[in-house]
Specification:
The protein is α/β, with parallel strands linked by helices and 409 residues long. The chain folds into two domains: 217 residues, 3-Layer(aba) Sandwich (Rossmann fold), CATH 3.40.50.2000; 187 residues, 3-Layer(aba) Sandwich (Rossmann fold), CATH 3.40.50. 44% of the residues lie in helices and 17% in strands. The protein has 15 helices and 14 strands. Strands 3-4-2-1-5-6-7-8 form an eight-stranded mixed β-sheet, with helices on both faces. The longest helix has 19 residues. The chain is globular.
Length: 409
């Protein structure tokens, strides 16, 4: 098959979207298919094009052997509403423009969302290339954006909901990352037989290092003691303030050998740092966003890994991709997401669930594990074995490929 894959975010930009798209594209290629990714020129998080990607409107190249066309987008440090809309729309327009540069027909166009405008690019490309259209839904947008207060203009909300319904109706196949997403889309009047679940997954060998934590801590200048880490986007949806509250409580109790480590950037980082400074906390460490291999080293230097989302029922529909990565690192997970995420963690035996944004329960769970090294080791082992059996990215990519093959070929 000839497959065209639309994703606004892609390597060398890192993150869950890039990981998912690359794993699928690479697997498709390894299985003998002709695949090309169309993505934005890398500019995250500063809003400035990375070195080597600044000239021209389109750059044709490859990432680890997978052909890629990187497109110019309207980007910049402005992360306000208008800036983001122009950012999304510019990708939509330029990505469709890139299609006209490609010769021949394609069999399948696959577009992953959010941003929702990526779906419009995919639909248009499918029409141009007379291909089947697969819409990959990784987030319930605009529903989540409205909940988070990122989208509050009534006209903009109605427009976004109209685009969402249009894409659901036009897609030949809709893939979702959770069963809850599937149910939500069915509730919007979409036939269930056009919706399939292809969850997120992980690369088990990429997140596990057979190195002693002490050496990694020395490399990254981390303290000795019990390190509880959150590695990833420090955003509103992650509900991170309760971690600072737990740190404050432990410091008040004179527990001096527990440290909280944040590795990453995002809109909540400045507020979290301010809280730590004002409270004079000595047990919280911040590190800037790093490359994936460096993030893996921080994860493997930790004793526990945190996976959290804010305290809102909508987030119980999600399965954060970092849950699988954390288990792959063979570390116990403290998870504050209910629903399918909690079920997966319970089934794996790879950690402890606690209620979202509950600082006291977080403190209680981490102290229990701090005093039980044997349970920590066993949970880490169980979690890693579980994702190796059930949630590798290659397995999910093969599932996607099988669905496409059976329906369209």
């Amino acid at each position: 098959m000839r497959i065209l894959f639309f994703s606004q975010y892609y390597f060398p930009e890192t993150g869950a979207t890039s990981n998912r798209v690359y794993s699928m594209a690479k697997t498709f290629q390894d299985e003998g298919h002709d695949v090309r990714v169309i993505a934005e020129k890398p500019n995250h998080p500063e809003g400035v094009f990375h070195k080597g990607y600044r000239k021209g409107v389109f750059i044709d190249g490859e990432y680890n052997g997978v052909p890629v066309t990187w497109c110019w987008v309207k980007t910049g440090p402005d992360k306000g509403f208008l800036g983001r809309i122009l950012f999304y729309i510019s990708y939509m327009v330029m990505a469709v423009g890139a299609v006209f540069r490609l010769k021949g027909r394609y069999d399948v166009v696959l577009a992953t969302s959010p941003p929702l405008f990526v779906g419009l690019s995919g639909w248009a490309a499918a029409r141009i290339k007379r291909a089947r259209f697969v819409f990959d839904v990784r987030d319930l947008w605009p529903e989540v954006a409205v909940k988070m207060g990122e989208l509050n203009n009534p006209k903009a909300i109605r427009l976004a909901e109209s685009i969402e319904r249009f894409l659901y109706r036009k897609a030949d196949l809709i893939t979702v990352v959770t069963e809850s997403f599937r149910e939500s889309i069915i509730e919007k009047g979409i036939e269930g037989d056009r919706i399939e679940m292809v969850t997120n997954g992980t690369e088990p060998d990429a997140f596990y290092l057979n190195e002693k934590p002490e050496g990694l801590r020395q490399k990254w200048n981390l303290p000795s003691g019990f390190i509880v880490s959150f590695v990833g986007n420090l955003g509103l949806a992650q509900g991170l303030d309760h971690i600072i509250e737990a740190a404050q409580s432990l410091q008040n109790d004179a527990v001096e050998d527990v440290f909280f480590l944040f590795v990453g950037d995002g809109p909540r980082k400045a507020g979290l740092v301010e809280k730590v400074v004002l409270s004079r906390l000595r047990n919280v460490i911040f590190r800037d966003r790093v490359s994936l291999p460096e993030a893996v080293e921080y994860m493997n230097a930790s004793d526990l890994l945190l996976v959290s989302l804010a305290n809102d029922p909508i987030y119980n529909k999600f399965i954060p991709s970092k849950l699988f990565d954390a288990m792959a690192a063979s570390k116990p997970v403290l998870l504050s997401v209910d629903g399918e995420s909690r079920r997966i963690l319970d089934e794996s035996g790879g950690g402890i669930w606690y209620p979202a944004e509950d600082a006291s329960k977080l403190k209680e769970a981490l102290l229990d594990l701090k005093n039980d090294a044997a349970s920590c080791a066993l949970m880490g082992q169980k979690g890693r074995e579980f994702v190796k059996r059930h949630y590798t990215r290659r397995a999910q990519a093969l599932k996607m490929l099988s669905m496409i093959d059976k329906r369209f070929m």
